[in-house]
């Protein structure tokens, strides 16, 4: 399918699809006229990429590990999956720490506002 159809099916903009290609995340086929040709496996990969990006993972990490995660099973696949899961867990832990700091800051601001709104004696 052409890029417009791939965009509709995957929910990714044509610009995003071109970006994923530029970043080496996908490799669409080419028609005789040079137009990109997206097969279902490429669309499935785009859906995976979008999900990972929406989760906050970086293009760098996705580019590094996604090829090994989606290739046919082999000796290195389990190690790649373990490395990927370790990276995701590490990202999640950093995110949780940031959320904790923000929650503490929010609580401090709430306390300040409660105090500031009290009528003067």
From TrEMBL:
The protein's name: DNA-binding transcriptional MerR regulator
Ranges of residues in domain HTH merR-type: 1-68
Pfam families (alphabetical): MerR_1
GO molecular function: DNA binding; DNA-binding transcription factor activity
Chain ranges passing through the membrane: none
Keywords assigned: DNA-binding, Transcription, Transcription regulation
């Amino acid at each position: 399918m052409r890029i417009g159809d791939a965009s509709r099916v995957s929910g990714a903009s044509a610009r995003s699809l071109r970006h994923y290609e530029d970043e080496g995340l996908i490799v669409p086929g080419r028609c005789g006229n040079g137009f990109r040709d997206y097969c279902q496996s490429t669309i499935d990969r785009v859906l995976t990429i979008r999900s990972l990006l929406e989760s906050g993972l970086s293009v760098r990490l996705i580019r590094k590990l996604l090829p090994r995660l989606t290739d046919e099973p082999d000796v290195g696949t389990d190690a790649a999956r373990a490395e990927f899961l370790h990276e995701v867990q590490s990202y999640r832990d950093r995110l949780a720490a940031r959320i904790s700091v923000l929650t503490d800051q929010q609580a401090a601001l709430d306390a300040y506002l409660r105090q500031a709104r009290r009528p003067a004696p």
